[in-house]
Amino acid sequence: MISWRKHYKQTLIAIGLLLSTSASIYGQDGDPKNGEKLFKANCTACHALDKQVIGPPLKGVVDRVKTEGGVGKDWLHKWIKDNKALRASGDKYANEIFEKYNKTEMLVFPNLTDKDIDDILAYTTNPPAPEEKKTPEATPSTEATTASASDKTTTNIVIISLLAIAGLLVWILIKLRQLVKLGQSEDLAGLNETRVKSFSEIYQKYHFVGKGIIAILALLATYGIWNWIMWIGVYKGYKPEQPIYFSHKIHAGENKIDCQLCHSSAKYGKVSEIPSMNVCMNCHRTISEYNGKYMEPGKDKAFYDGEIQKIYAATGWDPQKAQYTGKTQPVEWTRIHNMPDFVYFNHSQHVVAGEQAIINSFNKKNPNNKIDVVCKACHGKIDTMNVVQMANDFTMGWCIECHRTTEVDMNNGYNKEYFKNLHDKLKKQYPKDGGKITVDAIGGLECGKCHY
């Protein structure tokens, strides 16, 4: 009986040691795959594995802190959870790191469990091999297919045109041969006697027809000149190349960045400014290479990475030292949308007061091409453009047509109060569409609104 109890106790001790060892090993090794998810969610704003961003590279950080400071994983747990408290405790290595990286405050992560931190450290020690990405060239794009079909059609048209010209030349040669034979015959003398010998005789004979043709030509010439004059300064479809390539499809489309994050003054000012390069650096200070799935046909990762380097050159940012050098290179952007000096246009008035009214009006007129952001009503579906282009005419007639068809939201808090005593009068004065009030009814066609 005593022997059995002795063996029973030894067995329990052995099982306990085995379980504790297993737990210790698991906690030490961690799960690199889960660590990768946690790393991307918590660390990538300031760190990368293989290069310095705001903070140091974290690949092999466990071995590095052991070599540099003689500390281990327990120290890293304390540093990650609350590095401020660790520095305040007088930890020498913690304060050395703080001084080394320009006293940049690191976030604290009290929400991470010990297992989460072990998983992250396992990822930095032995990151999983990246999955192979499918190259966009593997599947021919719609644009490439369309371009191929267009080239084929153009080739067919050229061939048919050349054949038609060749047939015409053969016909002319045959007729010339007939004329030569006719000139060598006796019948030519009889024809010469009946032939009209001067243009004046032709005009006298057919002067009514001639005057009619001249009048038609004069009208066509007048219309052509007028049409040409009316389209001076209209550049719909204009899309110039910029000194730094910027794809709105990648930023506004793929990454869903709000227009007003970059064009902040559109909501509060008359002009929607070209964003400062410092706005770009809010994100690209930590994004030094392109790792997105979308690739424009004909462009690759190296192209996009090169454009990011242009941003660094323009702002004087040194990605290796993670600091500004002070040597900047101003970027000469090519302006696309530019109102004439004699035209007043206020972005904030349209983006704030008229936002929902403009969206509703546009979607009503374009049920198959609806928009969700007011900017798209004038600038087109900018989130699908790799190169920004002028999407509309931006003529006076185009603006007036919009004012005549866009219904004012009289339930808007501002309009409801401002036009409080005018509602009934306006509904009687503008009874169209059941008393709906459009922008022209509240002064949208007054010359002084836009010209001053």
From TrEMBL:
Q: Give the keywords, sorted.
A: Heme, Iron, Membrane, Metal-binding, Oxidoreductase, Signal, Transmembrane, Transmembrane helix
Which EC class, in a word? Answer: oxidoreductase
- Which positions, given as ranges, span the membrane? 157-174, 213-234
Q: Give the GO molecular function terms.
A: electron transfer activity; heme binding; metal ion binding; oxidoreductase activity
- Please state the span of the N-terminal signal peptide per the UniProt entry: 1-25
- So what EC number does this one have? 1.97.-.-
Q: Which domain of life is it from?
A: Bacteria
Question: CDD domains recorded for this chain?
Answer: Cytochrom_C3
The UniProt record lists the keyword Chloroplast: no
User: Positions of the region Disordered?
Assistant: 123-148
Cite the InterPro entries for this sequence: Cyt_c-like_dom (IPR009056), Cyt_c-like_dom_sf (IPR036909), Multihaem_cyt_sf (IPR036280)
SUPFAM superfamilies tied to this protein: Cytochrome c, Multiheme cytochromes
Pfam families from the entry?
Answer: Cytochrom_C
Q: Where is the composition biased (Low complexity)?
A: 137-148
Domain Cytochrome c positions: 30-128
Instruction: Give the PROSITE patterns listed for this entry.
Output: CYTC (PS51007)
What's the protein name?
Answer: Menaquinone reductase, multiheme cytochrome c subunit
Which source organism?
Chryseobacterium fistulae
Give the gene symbol.
Answer: qrcA
